[in-house]
């Protein structure tokens, strides 16, 4: 166990953490506007992976693509993943959650519905796409771009980090600097008053799911590029990203980003020090510890929600 | 602007004619099985300040909620300039020029003063700078604190922000729900002075208040609600002199 090896794991933790961060945003945004823990978001992520695979299988990349072709394939695959993720999230809100909102269903009913929707989507994917795992068609040769502390940083690592950072910067802009963003924040803070200001809550909620779905779907594609796509792939990243959202302070977008990065690093550090068996243990231990001292999460709301 | 103000001063004491800006006609509102409004009739004419008084639970807030589309009446009608608007959702109704300052202020706690004001102008493509300047002139305190988070303002400042936010939507009719609630007398006086100014600048006001004496001094006319029904409707000066009103709402022995 050399120090260089440790740094290498740290770098891989950041790569993983970027993915968690992007998924966690989907949980936290939806929680913000609906106070709903959308457990089905993990399946939105999984569908994003399949979106990428299906699109790239349909438009088979040539062997040994040129640089330009590679960029196109990646963009195409990511767009397809994001689009399918958004479509699933949009449908989920329309079909599963909106009717509950219309009837003012209690919180618990939403939660059970979310879990049910998650099972449904998960089994639907198993049925539709077969239950074996598929590899993402090769879009570029995944070579070592440079070596950092003896760790090979490959094209895929850079792709994940750069796309994730771009998505987070874009999302932060949308939430804090656009009209849709003000609508989202207003609905999160006081939906009734938001509608008095002219905010159409249904529209804002629907678009929030679409944004979460775009990010989750794109993350699913990136995850698939890094490993494989299979109908069960949503569960662990999903639950880790959910923990990341809680760790950062659920409802807080920047908190979700921070929490995701942190849990990614904690995960690879755990593997480094204690081995792969402990991979998912430490992250949740950190979550429990932090919540004991800061129940609202790292960047959690200091100001209470209005009654 | 001054034309509207002149119009307002003139008819005090006389019968109002023509189409009211807001009319609630035989309005019945239910919360589940509870009948909160039992067929009330209220008219607000352009340029007026109308006070809506009544004990706790009389249905004052419910009346405002029905007028701004937050609640759909089970029976009866809400008319703006003679056109039915009941059934239109509140987010669409703001386009008809209704500004509702809800009970308890309800500023967005995690938005700055400036962002709160901008939310008030959400129905427009972008907030009107002149309108914001006007709000800052009416409430210089808000200008000083424009970068402060809404949730950290004092009660009086929050009330000013809630009113300013509603003004940003350029309402023709301002509905105010107990703007004096929980505020020190000096601040209450300030807020009422500003309401007067807003009205003189051409905005019609429907004012719900517990503070009956202040409200009736400002208002042209008033309604008294009792358990979901209109018990009295008269000129503000007559209500102010009425022994029943004095006993029930001005804290004087009967
Ligand atoms: N959301 C609700 N669900 C059930 N009943 C309600 C609801 N809101 C109000 N009510 C009932 O309707 C009646 C009228 O309430 P409303 O809030 O309009 O009274 P108010 O005159 O504004 O009182 P206050 O001066 O205390 O604000 C009350 O009996 C109240 O209990
Ligand atoms: Mg009330």
Automatic annotation (TrEMBL), chain A:
Claim: Protein transport is one of the keywords in the record:
no
GO biological processes? D-alanine transmembrane transport; L-alanine transport; L-isoleucine import across plasma membrane
Q: Does the keyword Transmembrane helix apply?
A: yes
List keywords of the entry alphabetically: Amino-acid transport, Cell inner membrane, Cell membrane, Membrane, Transmembrane, Transmembrane helix, Transport
The protein's name in its UniProt record: Branched-chain amino acid ABC transporter permease
| Entries under InterPro entries matching the protein | ABC_transp_permease, BCAA_transport_permease
Q: Give the Pfam families listed for this entry.
A: BPD_transp_2 (PF02653)
Family according to the record? Belongs to the binding-protein-dependent transport system permease family. LivHM subfamily.
Q: Where can this protein be found? A: Cell membrane
Automatic annotation (TrEMBL), chain B:
**Which InterPro entries does the UniProt entry name for this protein?**
AAA+_ATPase, ABC_branched_ATPase_LivF/BraG, ABC_transporter-like_ATP-bd, ABC_transporter-like_CS, BCAA_Transport_ATP-bd_LivF, P-loop_NTPase
| Domain ABC transporter, chain residue ranges per copy | 22-252
Question: Which Gene Ontology BP annotations are present?
Answer: L-amino acid transport
Molecular function, one GO term: branched-chain amino acid transmembrane transporter activity
Alphabetized UniProt keyword annotations: Amino-acid transport, ATP-binding, Nucleotide-binding, Transport
Give the source's domain of life in one word: Bacteria
The UniProt similarity line reads: Belongs to the ABC transporter superfamily.
- What is the protein name for this chain? ABC transporter ATP-binding protein
């Amino acid at each position: 166990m050399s120090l260089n090896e440790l740094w290498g794991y740290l770098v891989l933790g950041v790569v993983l953490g970027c993915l968690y961060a992007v998924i966690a945003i989907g949980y936290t945004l939806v929680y913000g506007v609906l106070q709903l823990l959308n457990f089905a978001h993990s399946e939105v992520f999984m569908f994003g992976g399949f979106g990428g695979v299906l699109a790239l299988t349909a438009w088979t990349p040539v062997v040994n693509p040129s640089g330009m072709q590679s960029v196109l394939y990646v963009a195409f695959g990511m767009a397809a993943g994001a689009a399918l993720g958004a479509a699933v999230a949009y449908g989920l809100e329309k079909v599963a959650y909106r009717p509950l909102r219309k009837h003012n269903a209690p919180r618990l009913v939403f939660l059970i519905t979310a879990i049910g929707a998650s099972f449904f989507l998960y089994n639907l994917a198993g049925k539709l796409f077969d239950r074996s795992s598929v590899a993402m068609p090769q879009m570029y040769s995944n070579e070592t771009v440079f070596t950092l502390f003896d760790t090979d940083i490959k094209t895929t690592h850079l792709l994940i980090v750069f796309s994730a950072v771009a998505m987070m910067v874009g999302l932060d802009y949308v939430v804090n600097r656009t009209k849709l963003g003000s609508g989202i924040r207003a609905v999160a803070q006081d939906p009734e008053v938001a509608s008095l200001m002219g905010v159409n809550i249904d529209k804002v909620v629907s678009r929030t799911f679409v944004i979460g779905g775009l990010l989750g779907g794109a993350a699913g594609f990136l995850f698939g590029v890094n490993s494989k796509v299979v109908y069960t792939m949503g569960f662990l990243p999903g639950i880790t990203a959910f923990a990341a959202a809680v760790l950062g302070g659920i409802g807080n977008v920047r908190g979700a980003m921070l929490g995701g990065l942190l849990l990614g690093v904690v995960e690879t550090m755990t593997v480094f020090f204690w081995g792969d068996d402990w991979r998912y243990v430490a992250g949740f231990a950190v979550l429990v510890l932090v919540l004991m001292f800061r129940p609202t999460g790292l960047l959690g709301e200091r100001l209470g929600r209005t009654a | 602007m001054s034309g509207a103000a002149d119009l307002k001063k003139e008819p005090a004491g006389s019968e109002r004619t023509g189409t009211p800006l807001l009319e609630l006609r035989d309005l019945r509102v239910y919360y589940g099985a509870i009948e909160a409004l039992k067929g009330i009739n209220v008219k607000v004419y352009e340029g007026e300040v109308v006070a809506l008084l009544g004990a706790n639970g009389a249905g004052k807030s419910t009346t405002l909620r029905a007028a701004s589309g937050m609640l759909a009446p089970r029976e009866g009608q809400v008319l703006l300039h003679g056109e039915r608007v009941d059934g239109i959702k509140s987010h669409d109704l703001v386009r008809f020029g209704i500004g509702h300052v809800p009970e308890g202020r309800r500023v967005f706690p995690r938005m700055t003063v400036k962002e709160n004001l901008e939310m008030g102008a959400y129905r427009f493509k972008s907030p009107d700078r002149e309108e914001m300047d006007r709000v800052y002139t009416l409430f210089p305190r808000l200008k000083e604190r424009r970068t402060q988070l809404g949730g950290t303002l004092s009660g009086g400042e929050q009330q000013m922000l809630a009113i300013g936010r509603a003004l940003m939507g350029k309402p023709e009719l301002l509905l105010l729900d107990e703007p004096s609630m929980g505020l020190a007398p000096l601040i209450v006086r300030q807020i009422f002075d500003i309401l007067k100014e807003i009205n003189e600048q051409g905005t019609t006001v429907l004012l719900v208040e517990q503070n009956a004496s202040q409200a009736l001094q400002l208002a042209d006319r008033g309604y008294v609600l009792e358990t979901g029904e209109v018990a009295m409707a008269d000129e503000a000066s007559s209500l102010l002199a009425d022994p029943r009103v004095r006993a029930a709402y001005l804290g004087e022995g009967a």
